[in-house]
Amino acid sequence: MSDIGSEDGEDQGPNLGTYEGERNDAGERHGQGEAVLPNGDSYKGQYANGKRNGYGVYKFKSGARYMGNYDDNQKSGEGTFYYPDGSKYEGQWVNDVHHGAGKYTYANGDTYEGNWENDLRNGLGTYTYNQTGVQYVGEWVNGRREGNGELLFKGYKFKGTFLTDQPHGAGKYMFDIGVQQLGDYVLEKPVKEGEEEEEEEEDIQKLNPRWQGGQITHA
What we know:
The protein contains no helices and 16 strands. It is an all-beta fold. The chain has a domain at 13-84: Single Sheet (Histone H3 K4-specific methyltransferase SET7/9 N-terminal domain). A 16-stranded antiparallel β-sheet has the order 1-2-3-4-5-6-7-8-9-10-11-12-13-14-15-16, with no helix packed on it.
């Protein structure tokens, strides 16, 4: 959610918002100040040359709230964003988007902690599923599990590669009792009863991963 918007002219007429605070010699907002925007949002924090710069708290009329650093009206640096649905992002921002190291707590209790690029999970990160306690630790591309990673379960884990959010290719299951099974994940189209398989290319996200287990050895 972006709070980008010009505050120019907010106190030049009726229903254009209000501002109380410091100004520079040119009359621009500069230093500590408080503003109520025309749309009902509010901001309390630092200004420089008429724009939000430095630390501030921006409250949205919707109930969302941002507490953190600004650079020329854009969220930049460290900051925490509270969303109306109860989710929260804590971490780095660049040009008003999640970018860098950060932790996102989702409305359902799931969490992701790791690297972000342009508002998407990218690079190394850990996703914890609140309902089951299962964790994915590994690489991400454009918000999806992709590359090398591990799925951690109670008592065992899977280590292998992922493709567009699905386990794919060679991997192994490693059990706490000291054994492991090598094998491969293959992606298959789910076939309903009475339905024939089509040979045309399928969207990989619609395919189901199936484990083909092989040799069992001591870990």
